[in-house]
Design goal:
alpha/beta; 6-stranded parallel sheet; 9 helices; binds nicotinamide-adenine-dinucleotide
């Protein structure tokens, strides 16, 4: 462990990585932030740029570029390295290209003596989290993917707008693959303590199920929409990644829909998938198994099968 107990190494200083770094600096989530990239000059420049903002922040974070040796005493290694999703390219199509990138990263990180928590944002994130777990040999509780954390934030934002309540009072999750087969289990969605399905039924003049399903579709298609408009998505995922890092370093026991290895939950095994997890200093402390309806279980089953098939194709 580092002296401060709050050292994070970021691998991949592209748009997603630097959005995470910028959010981490502004939110003061760690005390030491190391930037590592195959393009060393870029990581050096990014560290310089962030350091020049220190005078305007309430943080005294140490920010510098380094190689993998810096991972030795880090609490968290955040991986945002990889190749970017192209317009109309599915997340699963990125797989082969990104596995090669990960082979070149995980080995030197483990060799450094790193004994903390891996947090993966690279797409397809559920598969890349699984790949990280296999390549590192770490126990699955210490290998976390950003999963459907961002999708869940998008859902809460849209539901908050629809019901005109703060997203903070919307308790609803997107689960499954971070991708085309993800879904919202409406049976588990609440505003305050009231089920969303009851709110719709009791206020048929104001709300309807079709609109809820549209919201779910909007969440699913958000990434493609943003990519079509501006080429890539990065601020949202950067902030979601900073949120998970804070939950770990502050030992929060917060519930976030990260990518996690299912070990019998929902009758599923051997697959990393987005599911609510209790996150603290040990990584994934516990998984929350939702009481899904038969139809929702079928959707989760479909998502897990897609991911397993993709993993098996490697
Ligand atoms: P980017 O091209 O801007 O950055 C990628 C960075 O990785 C570059 O700086 C590159 O030099 C570095 N890199 C490449 N190979 C490397 C290696 N072998 N070792 C070290 N560094 C290496 O891409 P981006 O927009 O930052 O996206 C990064 C990843 O995040 C992509 O896979 C993207 O699909 C994913 N992403 C995930 C989510 C999510 O919700 N999980 C959302 C958006 C993007």
């Amino acid at each position: 462990m580092s002296k401060s107990g709050r050292k994070v190494v970021l691998i991949g200083t592209g748009m997603v990585g630097m959005s995470f770094a910028y959010a981490a600096l502004n939110q003061n989530v760690c005390s030491e932030l190391v930037l590592c990239d195959i393009n060393e000059q870029k990581a050096i420049g990014e560290a310089q740029d962030l350091n020049h903002g220190l005078a305007f922040s309430n943080s005294s974070m140490r920010i510098y570029q380094s190689g993998y040796e810096a991972c030795e005493d880090a609490e968290i290694v955040v991986i945002c390295a990889g190749v970017n999703q192209k317009p109309n390219e599915s997340r699963l199509e990125l797989l082969q290209r990104n596995v090669k990138v990960f082979q070149s990263i995980i080995e030197p990180v483990v060799k450094s003596g790193f004994d903390g928590i891996f947090l993966v944002a690279t797409n397809p994130v559920d598969i890349m989290t699984s790949v990280t777990c296999s390549l590192s040999g770490f126990e699955p509780t210490r290998v976390i993917g950003t999963g459907t954390t961002l999708d869940t934030a998008r859902l809460r934002y849209l539901l908050g707008s629809y019901f005109e309540v703060s997203p903070k009072n919307v308790h609803a999750y997107v689960i499954g693959e971070h991708g085309d087969s993800e879904f919202t289990p409406w049976s588990q969605a609440l505003v305050s303590t009231k089920p969303v399905l009851d709110i719709v039924e009791d206020n048929a003049n104001l709300y309807n199920l079709d609109r809820l399903n549209e919201i779910s579709e909007n969440v699913k298609n958000a990434a493609q929409e943003i990519i079509a408009a501006k080429g890539a998505t990065y601020y949202g995922i950067g902030m979601a990644t900073a949120r998970i890092v804070r939950a770990i370093l502050s030992d929060e026991n917060s519930i976030l829909t990260t990518s996690v290895l299912l070990e019998g939950e929902y009758g599923q095994n051997d697959v990393f998938v987005g599911n609510p997890c209790i996150i603290n200093h040990s990584g994934i402390s516990r998984k929350v198994e939702l009481s899904l309806t038969d139809n929702e279980l079928e959707k989760l089953n479909n998502s897990c099968n897609i991911l397993r098939k993709s993993l098996n194709s490697l």
